[in-house]
Amino acid sequence: MKKVSMKDIAKELNTSITTVSFVINGKSEAMGISPATEKKVRDLIKKREFNPNSAARMLRTGKSKTLGLIVEDIGNFFFGNIAKIIEIEANKNGYNVFFSSTENNDETAKKLINKMRNSSVDGYIITATQGLKEEVIKLGRENIPFVLIDRLIPDLEANYVILDNYQGSYNLAKHLIERGYKNIGFISIYSEMSMMTEREKGFISAINDGGTDTIQMHSLKIEFGSSEVKTISMISEFLKTNTALDALFFATNYLGVMGIEALQKCKIRIPQDIAVVSFDDNDLFRLLTPSITVASQPIKEMATKSIEMLLRIIKKEQKLNDNRGHIIKPEIIVRESSPQKKVLINSKH
Amino acid sequence: MKKVSMKDIAKELNTSITTVSFVINGKSEAMGISPATEKKVRDLIKKREFNPNSAARMLRTGKSKTLGLIVEDIGNFFFGNIAKIIEIEANKNGYNVFFSSTENNDETAKKLINKMRNSSVDGYIITATQGLKEEVIKLGRENIPFVLIDRLIPDLEANYVILDNYQGSYNLAKHLIERGYKNIGFISIYSEMSMMTEREKGFISAINDGGTDTIQMHSLKIEFGSSEVKTISMISEFLKTNTALDALFFATNYLGVMGIEALQKCKIRIPQDIAVVSFDDNDLFRLLTPSITVASQPIKEMATKSIEMLLRIIKKEQKLNDNRGHIIKPEIIVRESSPQKKVLINSKH
DNA sequence: CTGAAAGCGCTTACAG
DNA sequence: CTGAAAGCGCTTACAG
Questions:
Q1: What's the whole-model pTM score?
Q2: Which positions of chain D lie under 7 Å from any protein Cβ?
Q3: Above 80 in pLDDT, residue A182?
Q4: Domains and CATH numbers, chain A
């Protein structure tokens, strides 16, 4: 019933704990354990189903073989799938993964980081919240490896994997303009996070580069964390007071989902009455009738790059916080919600 | 730079490690530490930002304050949201959570359980795979608390939180029958898991209780883990060879999603040509035009009940594997995809 | 080639 | 009221 320890193995084999430890840690050869001894040890380990006690190992080595994954919301399509890939890769490399959701709340995020630090995780992958800078700087000072994913922290050197939000937004807006839309509603949330500010900048640049025609931009910003009901009613209100709109640009996945709900409630048809595009792909956008044009984040690439980078930093193959990272290109997937605009008076194509 | 330990705190205060330990573990009163000493210790702990080394504590006590969450796929809406709630509840109770996805693969699941056991998790919440019985029995023998979620293991006494799949399926099928549908396609996957067998049983019972009219059932079973392309083409094939169908019943969320894609490809309209219902709700089903009638799983209730039960077992407030659990009632959400059937005289085909 | 032993940082039974 | 000390199960420098 009691768990077997290295001592038990050593005793049963009439050898020393040292020898058993060397075998377990693959140091037999380097330490000159005879193949015969090695085999004896291995066989008994298997027979007794011995597994080294991780707490003891952790206490001794200071390494936990555990990673911390802090995302905004694990229940979300994007982060859930990021998490899945990260966990699989971590597992392949002998790591377990703690996870948790910040819900974009600073206090929660700080608590989670500290909670995990007390469990001595070997490294973090973090989706930052707005006020997390201090906490993350502390990690750096203590030399704890971490990689930022999805968003940067302004004025902080770090390792990161982010989307090229500017470019994605620019291209998505440009797509609308090229298709003839001239009164575009930009619906986003109040946020200082690079992710959101870059999307806004990209959108505005595209508008300014709009060419010969003047493109009008109408902007609606929603408080982060507003309830679904509130968000939908704000979007509905926006639609009612801006009747000239011929296209909507949703700056996030969930705004897009709620926006579509608002449009349905207002009996505004896509794309006959208004064109729609959104950041982030999901099942809904793909299967809806009409399907929705999006800037899609390459989830697999983002997850893989971030865990690979973190493992490299942990193994000291890469320096921590050397300000190197990956900027992943989003893909514009054109679907039915943004057809060439039918021009009434002017020439048609 | 070096982490501060209890020894450092004790030395600086000219007291013993014992005293510090008692304060930290809230045993001051029971052990008769004077309030003055207690305060001194607490203040210094805060000042030095001392945090007990979890590895040492774990080695000493054998408790890790860590839970293991093993689900089918964390990237999935249902499991992702289950995970989120479980993590929040666990955190409130001082636990960290390891997670991983089995992808419904036995070998993966076994490996994950063992990997987590070596990290001495204090308890598991497990979405079982088909051949996991042995492994789970082992946990029981070693007195490691666990709660099965979403599916039972046949002939195994355990603690569990599952959906009343039979009832949900029965009610969903009955809804179709009551609305006048008579040729219903039942699309599910090959599986011995209780979850799937119960859904099939519920469906068949509803058909048999169908009343005066004879209800025809047509069944399509798909190999688990078939690719999306394969699944869609199998469903398309099924639709082509069963032209008499007037309704489809999808036994899982993702079959429903792929089924809708198949219907779109085949240019079969919902609900004019065929009615559709599915197990599990999601954004897509809610927002699609037409929206899809579903048997919805109360995610929050399931997650909360399972973590509460696990914590009770860990705290020995409930016996492990006493075969007690919760059977949660699904809710039938009627939407546009299953309207009252228009009856045309009698024959059409 | 292999072993005895220190020490990682805690908790707790025991002693005073 | 408080302290000295054993021991949880490992890893590894040192000795032979």
A1: 0.86
A2: 1-5, 7-13
A3: yes
A4: 6-50 (no CATH), 64-163+300-329 (3.40.50.2300), 165-297+332-343 (3.40.50.2300)
